[in-house]
Amino acid sequence: MKILFILMVLLFSAAIIRYNGMRRFILYLTAILLLPYSIAVLNSPHITANEVLALAFFISVAIRPKQAAEALRRCPWYVWAALVLVYLGHLGTAVMDYRLPLASAMVKAHTHFFDSFILLAVGYFSLYENLTLYHLRRFLVWASIIVAGYGILTCVVGIDPYTQLVERSFNVISDFTPLRGAGRTRACSFLFNSHGFGFFCAAAFLTLLLLYRRNILRRPLPLAALALLLMGTALSGSRSSLLALLLCAAFICMVTFTGMQRIKALVATVMLITAVLLTPFLRERVEPLMDAFRTGEVQTAGSNLELRKNQLDIALIFHRKSPTWGNGYDYYAEVLVPDKKLIGDEGLAGAESYLFMLLIEDGTVQIVLISLLLLCLALFFLSRLRQNPIYATWGLSVLALMVFVALASGMSINWKYSLPLIGMALKAVVNSDRKKTAVTA
After folding, report:
1. How confident is the model over 124-152, as pLDDT tens digits?
2. Range list of H helices, 236-304
3. Which residues are CB-contacts of 106 (< 8 A; sequence separation ≥ 6)?
4. Which is the most buried residue in 95, 144, 271, 370, by most CB within 10 A?
């Protein structure tokens, strides 16, 4: 079965190279949803399925230089300039990592950048005309029903055959915990990772809510997809994704809905809250949200504010060892994780915030540069809220979802589900601006 998985990665990669535009983007999304991040195409050097698929995408862009050059020309200069600075920051951290030979450190820097911020380009380079977003929303409806539906089904049944197949094939362990299991429920679906599943459900929910905003109540399939995505987010056990989803959905309703639509949304929200409070099964799923804000563990085995504070104190200790450029990539996994006392007794397990990883591994320079990039994206979307409320709200809400989850529980594999959508929203706004400029001229 291992060979079959790797063959699927290579077939998807070949198709991504062959096609372009929205078809290429949908192929990429299909691949990262069906092929878990834990699939290693090569063990030495370690190359994952996600890296092969992303490489295939950029090869597809490179063999079409005219389209790529035109897309770059339209991109706001301060966004791509900030992205270049983040890349240079990655190189700086690699150069200053004295644990490894320079070549090995540089490979790690490029791998981390390739697995994260450069994925903005996946969405940006794939949208030629905004009309093709019609194909994205149709794909997301069916993908959401299948992915969220399977995740919910495995939780209820108590077994996940796909996850077990991946575990046996690649000798890895998922964090799947069925509905009747102890502690928090954790569904994985095809994504193998519960946090990744919860984040995808949340990001897809926000995207479909916006793209079907006008007639969502009259469209049974999109409405069913939204319901499954909301339940999938809850059953993933990712409290940060669920809370961020609720906040971002409220923001979308405030910005894009009319007066009557807001009233309907308010009534639906009140009815949903009432149903949750009156139904024991649903109430049990939501109670862990409140536990996250307590200073000590009460019901769940998850993290809370007290654990976050302890982890921040430990992260700051290691940050002071190399404050400017950090201690180097994978320092947490290679140096700190083997220290069982630090991980177990002191509670650093998971380093459950992207900020902690930045403090430990990346250093102050990268914290500033990454913050600058996120700020540039946020300011771009905010500046277009009046002219392009739908696409700007889409980009801003997924960006807010990403940042909230990153600070609350870390990024895990969430980069590849958030940044392509943010990049596509960025290009949708750019395309709208171009059309309005042409009409004015």
Report:
1. 999 999 999 999 999 999 999 999 999 99
2. 239-256, 259-278, 280-291
3. 91, 94, 95
4. 144
